[in-house]
Write a structure and sequence with these properties.
With about 160 residues, this protein is mostly helical. Helix content is about 80%, strand content about 0%.
């Protein structure tokens, strides 16, 4: 009977290990699902999604929504041009990004009301903090690089 008891224990342990591996693999797949959907989107679809989210967050009117769609389309084209040019010039990326961020902020001042602009800047600061947290987690070898509050990263 002792051997039979050991075999049952081993069988139960195998089932437990398989179940644990299944849970881990499913949760990993579920976490990465949102990113794979986003990577399949066209730039126009991503811009539309950004405008829709901002409309909800900032209560934008139709004119502001159209202005943002145009702004995001222009920024996407500028990013593509920047990527094409940056293959030759490696050291200027950070300066160019900072200049583009400042130019974008100036354009947002022209589109948004002062209240909306304040809220937008707060959202941008939160996004920047989450990105820095994620980058720090990755550098420390952390496995979970998703925002803790379930927020979106493309504010």
């Amino acid at each position: 009977f002792k051997k039979f008891g050991q075999l049952c224990f081993i069988s139960k342990m195998k089932k437990l290990i398989i179940a644990a591996l299944l849970v881990v693999s499913i949760s990993t797949f579920a976490q990465n699902g949102d990113r794979s959907e986003r990577s399949k989107m066209t730039p126009e679809q991503r811009n539309t999604q950004r405008v829709e989210r901002m409309s909800k967050e900032l209560n934008l009117d139709a004119k502001q929504q159209e202005q943002l769609k145009q702004l995001y389309a222009e920024e996407a084209q500028a990013r593509e041009a920047q990527r094409a040019n940056s293959k030759d010039k490696k050291g200027q990326g950070r300066e160019n990004m900072e200049a583009q961020r400042k130019a974008s902020e100036e354009k947002m001042k022209a589109i948004l009301t002062p209240e909306q602009l304040t809220k937008w800047k707060a959202n941008q600061d939160k996004m920047r903090e989450r990105m820095q947290q994620r980058m720090g987690d990755r550098q420390r070898g952390g496995m979970d690089d998703r925002p803790q509050d379930g927020g979106n990263m493309d504010n």
